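In the laboratory, one determines a bound structure by crystallizing the protein with its ligand and collecting diffraction data. In a computational setting the workflow is compressed into a single prediction: the sequence and the ligand go in, and a structural description comes out. We illustrate the idea with iron/sulfur cluster.
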Amino acid sequence: MQPRRKSKFDLPQGDLALAQVAERYAVSVTDAVMETIDSANPADPVARQYLPSAEELKTTPDELDDPIGDDVHSPVKGIVHRYPDRVLLKPVHVCAVYCRFCFRREKVGPGSEALSKEELQKAIAYIRNTKEIWEVILTGGDPFVLSPRRLRDIMDALNEIPHVQVIRFHTRVPVADPSRVTDELVQALHSEKAVYIVLHANHARELTVKVREATRKFIAAGIPLLSQSTLLRGVNDDAAVLEELFRALTAMKIKPYYLHHPDLAPGTSHFRLSIARGRGLVEKIWGRLSGIAQPSYVLDIPGGFGKVPAGGEWLQEDGEGYAVTDYQGGKHRYKDS
Ligand SMILES: *Cc1c(COP(=O)(O)O)cnc(C)c1O
Ligand code: SF4
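The predicted complex, in structure-token form:
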């Protein structure tokens, strides 16, 4: 499925580097995002998240095509089953926008198809036949680019599986294309089961009037909202910026859930910062900001070993990087790059 509207952003004519970037990684920006970008500011934190840059052509040796190891945990197409009690269900590979730092950037884009009807049925059959699955997390791509009718079909199928008790959506749509949040979309999510939405937002400037109206619709329908943000150099690697973001979200009735350390996605080294800097930022807002407004700072262990809190027992500095312990007690190495 293609994004509904063409982007307003046209690659500058004759810029060979950007043409190369666009050949390798999907580029799409919505009207709503273009309106939010402050074109007078060359360091605009919204522009940096969405507009392609020649820096993406630089890849470093530690970067991985599949940084968080989705592929090694995929029992059937469209499912990632890494933790016993929950799976990712990825019905679609397109998004409303393409974030330049995306951890799935090798997988998402208009060239990659959604699951076919049969593939989706097989993925749902896997969930039905795997009794330990308590929670289904719809992600992608972005599940909210699907039509309300297709979302309703997926919800109907999940509603019939007794062991599935929680249905979670990970989405950027309410921020990137709030006009897609129609009453039909909200109604399609109705369920007797618990439904949660985790909104991806990285800077308070993204939370415009239209975005607030969109998120309010979900809340009015009784759907709790959480947020996830990625810590990004040049976007939000500043304590005051993070504090403003988490305050704004919390005041919008959106509970900050995760702050992700940036993943080792190809061509994203210009967005990365060290774990030590990330921890420094998180320590600065600790105590200054209400506890309910604080997300957990997490690292997705490269290779598919799951997420861990980016500190404490889980992540210990030992002079040559970090000794990381995953949730099953497995040991891994991690180094800043
Ligand atoms: C992130 C992720 C989840 C969800 O993890 P939570 O910590 O429950 O938010 C589930 N499965 C996979 C494969 C993931 O990458
Ligand atoms: S919306 Fe999510 S999946 Fe899509 S490009 Fe952005 S980070 Fe990647």
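The pocket of pyridoxal-5'-phosphate (ligand 1) is lined by residues 68, 80, 82-83, 86, 88, 137, 307 (CB under 6 Å). Keep in mind that any predicted model is a hypothesis to be tested, not a measurement.
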